[in-house]
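Researcher: I've got a protein sequence and the SMILES for NAP. Could you write out the 3D structure of the bound complex as structure tokens? I'd like something to compare against our soaking experiments later this week.
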Amino acid sequence: MVMRALFAASGGRLEWRSAPRPQPAENEVLIRVHAAGVNRADLLQRRGYYPPPPGVTEILGLECAGIVERCGPAVVDVKPGDAVCALLAGGAYAEYCCVPADQILFVPSGRGFTEAAAVPEAVFTAWRNLVDVGGLRTDERVYINAAASGVGTAAVQIAVLCGAHVAASAGSPQKLKTCRELGAEFTINYREQDVAAELNRWTDGRGVNLALDMVGGEQFNTLLQSLSHAGRVVVIGLLGGRESKIDLARLLQRGITISSGTLRNAEAEVKARLAAQLRERFMPAWESGRYRPLVDRVFSIEQTNDAHEYMRAARNTGKIILQFDV
Ligand SMILES: NC(=O)c1ccc[n+]([C@@H]2O[C@H](COP(=O)([O-])OP(=O)(O)OC[C@H]3O[C@@H](n4cnc5c(N)ncnc54)[C@H](OP(=O)(O)O)[C@@H]3O)[C@@H](O)[C@H]2O)c1
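Model: Sure. Here is the predicted complex with NAP in place.
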């Protein structure tokens, strides 16, 4: 059996092709995709800069929501007909995809697939890097840049759910307003304000305990100036560039730790462990409405090109979703 799927073609074009419908392995489920989330990584992959890890499909798309169609023989606790959303290493821009059962989350009752498709990549990434890698603790002060992005809007909320105090930066007053609505106590327009000076003001000169950095580039050294003693920074994106000149003395003086994390290349065991943590500690917040997946705009899957252009122009606050005509 075949299905329609979106691939990156030459020159960064998108191309619909027929592909074999995937078959679930022992521990996998086959999902009929109803909606897929758009990620910056998709824009890079179609231009040839972010190839899938070895053994992963070339079909674009890192997250989806839909209905379980079939389960592999070793799968327990998931059954055909379940509404789920899932983190994938690739393959969500297609009518069907397969994913290890331990990487899925169940969609709370009454929630739509477009909302559900906004959850996996943003929430797994934010949780892994704030909680798992970053070691976020109650009452700590956290700084999140690119905070109105898909990942950023999840990170602000997750930090707040963890009992932290959040400072967020973004590039427009409207984006900052949304960050405050999501729980950020302090916001900075990085285009108009001095980020280090503002964070210094917010922390009475003590610096932030943890920074989640999606920008890197030249701003990275500024970020180091804003960290407290024993402060930590977790680098998860390079929106501002891959190189930065840093003041190593600052690292030594303050005992700063720099770490990083990527999700796509993480081992299956890591993703399963994260999913287990999320089921226990995040799902109640989503179910009760304390966590709100932020969907900026829904495009038809046929308009994927327009959706990517919209993201490239940084017009979104929160997630952009592709909807399938099921
Ligand atoms: N490590 C991981 O596992 C992982 C997983 C997922 C995503 N990520 C990373 O997380 C970041 C956010 O991803 P996303 O899909 O959530 O992005 P997104 O929704 O497209 O948002 C990105 C936003 O970043 C802001 N930005 C700040 N500086 C920028 C710059 N120099 N160039 C372009 N945009 C800039 C822009 O908003 P303003 O108007 O505020 O400038 C833009 O809208 C990306 O760097 C992505 O690669 C990492």
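Model: The first strand starts at residue 2 and ends at 8. The pocket of NAP is lined by residues 39-41, 121, 125, 146, 148-151, 170-172, 175, 214-215, 236-237, 239-240, 261-263, 311, 314, 316 (CB under 6 Å).
Researcher: Great, I'll pass this along to the crystallography team.
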